[in-house]
Amino acid sequence: MDGFALLSQHACFGGWQQFWQHASRETGTSMRFGLYRPPGPVRGLLVYLAGLTCTEETFAIKAGAQRRAAELGLAVLSPDTSPRGTDIAGQAEAWDFGVGAGFYLDATQAPWATNWRMESYLMRELLPAVQAELQGVPGVPGLPVGLMGHSMGGHGALTLALRHPGRFASVSALAPICAPARCPWGRKAFAGYLGPDESTWAAHDASALMASQAQAPYPRGIRIDQGLADQFLAEQLHPEAFEVACAAVGQPLTLVRHADADHGYYFIASVIDAHLAHHAQALG
Amino acid sequence: MDGFALLSQHACFGGWQQFWQHASRETGTSMRFGLYRPPGPVRGLLVYLAGLTCTEETFAIKAGAQRRAAELGLAVLSPDTSPRGTDIAGQAEAWDFGVGAGFYLDATQAPWATNWRMESYLMRELLPAVQAELQGVPGVPGLPVGLMGHSMGGHGALTLALRHPGRFASVSALAPICAPARCPWGRKAFAGYLGPDESTWAAHDASALMASQAQAPYPRGIRIDQGLADQFLAEQLHPEAFEVACAAVGQPLTLVRHADADHGYYFIASVIDAHLAHHAQALG
């Protein structure tokens, strides 16, 4: 990839777990990402958006997705969770806002609007570059892409999949923030990045976006897994709001609730193969 | 377990990834360990000894072993790599000696001999306690135990398996330090923990121990996986020395060399299922 530097790569299940760095046009910062490249032909690209405080390494290290990705011929792209290295005052003072907490949207408010452009970064810059790299044939229709994410990244997966119809072949989420406009994490982020006018928030709220659809946007179905021992479930996640919105527009939703599971990567590892299978059906 | 405090547990592949803490009689310190408990009956206990700088969490987070362990009914014990929290001067100044670098032996030299008693800690204290906990029936013959490890922990697995005949049903290693008496990591550790008299070192050197056997100690075979792109292979690991020693005493050894693999956990994750299968044969 032109202008992209390969920081490291590690043999993994017959393929390569790579880490890259590049100067981003959209964020104005140096950005890193992980890319798992399976052995043999690449059938599809799966994008994983991580949660608060995570980096481009978290999913690659903790989720154990490479085993099945190798078998299924799926590449897996794991972007970072925000710009880093700007000189914005207070950018790293909170764990749930600023660095590590980009919420996968383009901020409209100073001082964030210049760099915190994660939606444009992903959709206009990183994803096209990685798709082109993987398919190797510029100009032909792109490699099919699936989108998934965890917690804040689940919010990112659901909202980007709804804001960019036709761009993703499949979508799923793990313990996603489903109604950010009404939970503390989301309200803090939206107030800071989008400003106090709450009418602008609905366009970045998965449940509100789904409720506004004229018809089911993903007729093959959306998969969500949620632990019932998740310490953030009651206050922050609201899967029932997304469930209601899906039902109202006829969007098929498989919402699997797990009695003992918490919010962490031991849960993610336990269900990741099911998510890869969900995406492989659409990407195959 | 009496006197053991459960620090946390996480639902994982139908079982539980637990982390425990206890006051160790042998090390005189507070020690932590990880324990994966599979769903259903426990058929065997697999002990994983980690490498330099690792903690009781590293394997649980990075190796992805729980999926197959759950299917095979294996519990997995992951001890810490040294005592921590003593007031020995310089204990944490080097990454390859002292804290995080216990080398799974009992030090004989001051100031280490009081606390750096990892062999006694594992063999006399932790392992019996965990075995008793898992089988739940005090007094009956113990649950079968397999032993594996990586790098410094591979040294630990091979040497403890040879120093305690009959204690382990199976043994394997990943990129182990096979001849510590002749590599920089091992010579530094042995000089510090065992003193300058090199005649005492052979009892903790896997290749020397194997060469001294009257007959094959593990007739069902030992498995080792080694990456050929491992940055420590040439200087530190010497698998060929262990291979020669095994051949000399008729010890069956499956030494699998992987062209592209490095020393890290992406390699471990790629081969961990094969190691679990190796142990399950003996523990089943």
Automatic annotation (TrEMBL), chains A, B:
GO MF terms held by the record: carboxylic ester hydrolase activity; S-formylglutathione hydrolase activity
A GO CC annotation given for this chain: cytosol
UniProt-listed Pfam families: Esterase (PF00756)
Keyword entries, A-Z: Hydrolase, Serine esterase
Entry keyword annotation includes Hydrolase: yes
Active-site residues (renumbered): S151, D230, H263
Any one of the GO BP annotations: formaldehyde catabolic process
Recorded family membership: Belongs to the esterase D family.
NCBIfam families: fghA_ester_D (TIGR02821)
Name of this chain's protein: S-formylglutathione hydrolase
The organism's taxonomic lineage, starting at the top: Bacteria, Pseudomonadati, Pseudomonadota, Betaproteobacteria, Burkholderiales
